[in-house]
Write a structure and sequence with these properties.
Radius of gyration: 48 Å
Distance between the termini: 70 Å
Helix content: 55-70%
Strand order of the largest sheet: 4-3-7-6-5
Shape: rod-shaped
Largest sheet: 5 strands, antiparallel
Strand content: 5-15%
């Protein structure tokens, strides 16, 4: 499991650093590749979230403008213009309701969260924005009250306020506010320039300057919104990635805990077996010993201690040269070498110095002992004391 987790990362990439880089790459790619990306879909969602306020502002501002221009503009033209505005906003309201119902449908194959992957909702909304801009632009051109400065001021004030309010409501998608603002402001500026007098020309220039300022403000708001969405989605994706990795690590820890428990159980079993074998060796009345391939004693039983007259601590970890005389040690070492080379059982009859300096006649049955895979680990021997038999 751990091996697979490590192999899934590119060389030099580990843990949360790789996850953070991967999430950043996804968000950056989403910001630069068209209308099906999470960032852009979130921007479209913000347009529809602000749609109710935009529609209400359009209807209220249009109603106020119609009321203020009632004495200066033909009533039938005003009524037709106001009716067109209201019907348009009702259509946009129906579009907004349809969007909200559609984006709440649990369609996993075509949705990120609750937002469709393939969508024309942005085009429909922008079409509504363009239509609203045309209607307001028509007001700036066809409803302009020539010869009535007070009514002109009212028209300019309402158009300017509508544009200013649109900067925040339409800045989420880059093209939305410029599309609306140009259609609203250009007809009014053209009207001023067509009047061909210094005051009107100055008003036309001011209209264009005002338009340029609002376009720049909308651009800055759009950049801020995009950065905020990118950061939020990046953090959300990073949290999801960290949660997935946390789940994976939890599973790995559970597996490791299971392995540790198994190894602990095996170690306990081995410890019990070793203890049993040691007790079994202690219960054997004949002296028993075993040593490694270098001739170093690794263990013995009490009968061997008693025979050689040495404590176990003075035997284990030592060679025959440190336990017996040099002559006997040379003989034992030579026979060890023969046993290691030939691998056949040995039965030696020799005189072994025992406790109190007496010699005991013993037969040493010696053989090799191996590990489970057949590797030679050393020599094991059992001594049979035949002194009394010889004497008899």
């Amino acid at each position: 499991m751990i091996g697979r987790a490590n192999r899934s990362l590119p060389p030099g990439e580990t843990g949360s650093f790789y996850g953070q880089r991967r999430v950043s790459e996804k968000i950056s790619a989403g910001r630069s590749t068209g209308s099906s990306t999470p960032v852009y879909l979130e921007q479209v969602r913000m347009l529809y979230d602000g749609a109710a306020a935009a529609l209400l502002a359009n209807v209220v501002n249009a109603s106020i403008l119609a009321y203020l221009l009632w004495d200066a503009i033909d009533h039938s033209l005003l009524e037709a213009w106001l009716t067109a505005m209201v019907l348009l906003q009702l259509g946009r309201f129906a579009l907004t309701r349809t969007y909200r119902k559609a984006t709440h449908q649990p369609d996993r194959s075509t949705a990120i969260g609750r937002i469709p992957l393939t969508t024309r909702w942005d085009r429909w909304y922008l079409a509504g924005v363009a239509a609203s801009g045309l209607v307001w632009g028509f007001a700036g051109y066809a409803l302009f009250p020539h010869g009535a400065p007070g009514h002109q001021l009212a028209l300019i004030f309402i158009l300017g306020g509508t544009l200013a309010g649109g900067t925040a409501l339409l800045a989420a998608v880059r093209v939305a506010f410029p599309l609306f603002a140009l259609l609203v402001a250009i007809p009014l500026a053209v009207t001023f320039f067509m009047m061909n007098d210094p005051q009107s020309t100055a008003m036309g220039v001011l209209s264009l300057i005002y338009l340029a300022v609002l376009l720049n403000v909308a651009r800055l708001i759009h950049a801020t919104i995009t950065s905020s969405i990118t950061l939020r989605l990046g953090n959300k994706a990073l949290v999801a990635d960290l949660q997935a990795r946390t789940t994976e690590l939890t599973q790995i820890n559970q597996l490791l805990r299971g392995e540790i428990d198994k190894r602990t159980e095996i170690q306990d079993q081995l410890r019990n077996q070793l203890f049993f074998l040691q007790e079994l060796m202690e219960a054997i009345p004949s002296p028993v010993f075993h040593k490694d391939t270098q001739g170093v004693y690794q263990g013995c039983n009490k009968a061997f201690e008693k025979l050689v007259g040495r404590a176990r601590a003075d035997i284990i970890g030592k060679t025959a040269f440190e336990v017996f005389s040099r002559e006997l040690a040379d003989s034992l070492t030579r026979r060890d070498r023969e046993l290691l080379e030939e691998g056949t059982l040995q039965a030696l009859e020799l005189d072994l110095p025992a406790a109190g300096g007496k010699l005991r006649r013993v037969i040493a049955h010696r053989a090799l002992h191996h590990n489970p895979v057949g590797k030679v680990l050393g020599v094991i021997g059992v001594l049979v004391d035949i002194t009394d038999r010889k004497n008899a």
